């Protein structure tokens, strides 16, 4: 596993990543936004089970970590849209690997 | 992002993965075990900051998800060792991508 199996320095960068992505919602929100910019309600509808309070908190944390951008449009009434940044998009491979692993995990756990 | 950007079915498998790996400790414990079987104390030492209570809880959850194996050796006194399973090892690519992304994230956040 990795050429650096157990290496403390590699563990540090994995820890950095996990801290930025902590919890079960952030990657799901990013995945939802990876299809295009969305409004608060749309995200909440796609990420099934998240409460408004949690979504609001997660969006703030994602913005702070420069993974998403919040834009206020000058419409009447004003509308707010969230979009994924290039840095957020750089999680593509992580999400892809999690997707494949999630499929395999379901098989291992539920079919045995 | 993915060819399936935002696809509900892909979101389900990412959700499965995140549920099995929830929290900031599980992947770090697996990474520590990826270098070889270890005893409780050794893992606790390598995964800096984890309490005994949290480590004990996480090990149980990892075992339930078939990601690690707990073995009791017939020594005097008996010793317990934890090792990563093949299913746990299948997280190699996820950990690798998180490692690379963690490095990039540190640069983005701390150097700008």
Distance between the termini of chain A: 25 Å
Largest beta-sheet details of chain A: 2 strands, antiparallel
CATH class of chain A: Mainly Alpha
How many domains of chain A? The number is 1
Give the largest chain-chain interface (CB within 8 Å): A-B, 54 and 55 residues
In CATH, the topology of chain A is named Arc Repressor Mutant, subunit A
Give the neighbour order of strands across the main sheet of chain A. 1-2
Radius of gyration of chain A: 16 Å
Mean pLDDT of chain A: 91
What proportion of the residues of chain A is helical, as a percent range? 55-70%
Total helical elements of chain A: 6
- Oligomeric status: homodimer
Percent of sequence in beta strands of chain A = 5-15%
What shape does the CA trace of chain A take? globular
Secondary-structure arrangement, i.e. CATH architecture of chain A: Orthogonal Bundle
Protein name (chains A, B): Helix-turn-helix transcriptional regulator
Keywords (chains A, B): DNA-binding, Transcription, Transcription regulation
């Amino acid at each position: 596993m990795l050429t650096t199996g157990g290496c403390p320095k590699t563990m540090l960068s994995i820890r950095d990543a996990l801290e930025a992505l902590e919890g079960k919602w952030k990657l799901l929100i990013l995945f939802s936004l990876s299809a295009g910019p969305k409004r608060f309600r749309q995200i909440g509808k796609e990420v099934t089970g998240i409460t408004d309070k949690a979504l609001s908190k997660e969006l703030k944390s994602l913005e702070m970590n420069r993974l998403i951008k919040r834009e206020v449009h000058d419409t009447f009434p004003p509308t707010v849209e969230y979009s994924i940044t290039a840095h957020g998009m750089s999680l593509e491979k992580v999400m892809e690997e999690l997707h494949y692993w999630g499929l395999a995990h379901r098989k291992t756990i539920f079919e045995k």
